[in-house]
Write a structure and sequence with these properties.
Blueprint: H1 7-35, E1 39-53, E2 56-71, H2 78-104, H3 112-129, H4 141-150
Antiparallel strand pairs: 1-2
Helix pairs in contact: 1-2, 1-3, 2-3, 2-4
């Protein structure tokens, strides 16, 4: 049952952990796109812009969503686009595995923060790779992978 005692954890999850998971996910897309020579623009959040650092921007509702746009890939091949679409989820998975390794070797403590981070990361991975289009017609990473393999078209931006 959700009680008033759960409010602090809810706030931590909503305003810190979920944005961190989103940032790691988008960083995966960014790193992969840059490896293939792409020009990048990425964002955390929605609404009015709070600040921008180069090609990275943070919007007022930073806890809501994220996206990444890339263009002008030096290696403009199907496998490069698939790799970029997969990279967000792979980064999320890599952080989960790293946290588990560090916990198992007692480098970091067993803590609810790391559990919640891993939980939201798995959530992100599942819904990112599940093939669907949102209400605006933008594809999930899974649908973008399907589109690029099946139809040879890339999606913009990556969610």
């Amino acid at each position: 049952m959700f009680t008033m005692n759960d409010i602090p954890m809810f706030i931590l999850n909503f305003f810190l952990i979920l944005p961190l998971v989103t940032l790691v996910h988008e960083a995966g897309h960014v790193v992969a796109a840059r490896l293939f020579g792409g020009k990048i623009h990425f964002c955390i959040g929605t609404g009015k812009m709070m600040f921008q650092l180069g090609s990275f921007e943070v919007r007022r509702m930073y806890f809501m969503e994220g996206w990444c746009q890339y263009k002008d890939l030096r290696y403009n091949k199907t496998w490069a686009h698939v790799s970029i679409y997969l990279a967000g989820s792979l980064f999320n998975l890599l952080v989960i595995l790293t946290l588990n390794l560090l916990i198992s070797h007692k480098v970091i403590p067993v803590d609810l923060f790391f559990y919640q981070y891993s939980y939201f990361s798995f959530y992100f991975i599942f819904f990112s790779l599940f093939p669907y289009r949102n209400g605006d017609g933008k594809p999930s990473d899974g649908m973008a992978i399907y589109d690029v393999i099946r139809h040879g078209k890339t999606s913009d931006p990556i969610d």
